[in-house]
Amino acid sequence: MTCxxxxxxxxxxxxxxxxxxxxxxxxxxxATTMNIRLKAPDDTVVTKDAALVTDGSDGKMHxxxxxxxxxQEGRWGIQGYVELPAGNWSTEIGSFLVLENLA
Length: 103
Description:
Elements: E1 5-6, E2 13-17, E3 33-39, E4 45-49, E5 51-52, E6 60-64, E7 74-84, E8 87-90, E9 94-99
Parallel strand pairs: 1-9
Antiparallel strand pairs: 2-6, 3-4, 3-7, 5-6, 7-8, 7-9
């Protein structure tokens, strides 16, 4: 299934998975900090608090897009960051496209 993200959308779940350098899932249940960083097409970076998708054993966390978060058309960057007692991890930098709407 293909999903389009549109300018001004809200309620969209942006999800990342935390893995170590050996591509093993990092359980998140003990995380003290979970963030998702978003980089807009104009290079502005914002940090959003993330939440667990399930119980954390799958390494997945997400951010639910709020009003005015996706305020620019174009390619956005996304990166997860987590702090745990065992260490800190950042995900690979991914990207997604925010498309225009009809006037």
